[in-house]
Design a protein that fits this description.
The chain has 153 residues and is α+β, with helices and mostly antiparallel strands. Helices cover 42% and strands 16% of the residues. It is built from five helices and three strands. A three-stranded antiparallel sheet has the order 2-1-3. Strand 1 and strand 2 form a beta hairpin. Helix 1 (5-20) packs across helix 2 and helix 2 crosses helix 3. It is globular and about 45 Å long. The model is unreliable at 149-153 (pLDDT under 50).
Length: 153
């Protein structure tokens, strides 16, 4: 069976993350992407390190189908302008708690209000929208482009 392109590209980055965080290998949970220590994205995965590696691939590998998505363009622009981008594991989730991933992710999105999370995961079959993130998203674009973000904006 042929592997999906994103997986092949992500697996190039996987050994690096496994060396940094061997305890996370093949573990499920919730992770966060930060720019200059500020949360900008919260996500979930049944394989945290592979998902983080896939984000890395989407940011830097032009062959990745997600390379031109706005989220990755903004992260790439932030990195090119000297901002620090980090991946952080927030919670590990056991196999018996896997059905709770969406709820735990939504709770963390509410807690951190990251600008690159426009839509919460589906809960009970319905996506929920995070209204504040539309403003936060615009503020993040302005921040990485070097434009000041006013307190009243």
């Amino acid at each position: 069976m042929k592997k999906e392109k994103w997986r092949v590209l992500a697996e190039k980055h996987l050994p690096y993350y496994e060396s940094l965080c061997p305890q996370a290998k093949n573990r499920a949970g919730i992770y966060m992407i930060t720019v200059d220590d500020v949360p900008v994205y919260v996500g979930q995965s049944k394989n945290l390190l592979l998902r983080i590696a896939s984000h890395e691939s989407a940011i830097y590998d032009k062959e990745n189908d997600e390379y031109n998505k706005t989220k990755y363009k903004l992260l790439r622009e932030a990195k090119e302008k000297g901002h620090s981008i980090c991946f952080e594991i927030l919670h590990y989730v056991s196999d018996e708690d896997l059905p709770l991933l969406d709820i735990i992710e939504a709770w963390n999105i509410d807690k951190y209000n990251p600008p690159l999370n426009i839509i919460h995961p589906e809960i009970n079959g319905h996506p929920t929208y995070h209204d504040n993130n539309y403003k936060n998203y615009t503020d993040f674009e302005r921040y990485i482009s070097g434009k000041a973000v006013s307190a009243s904006a």
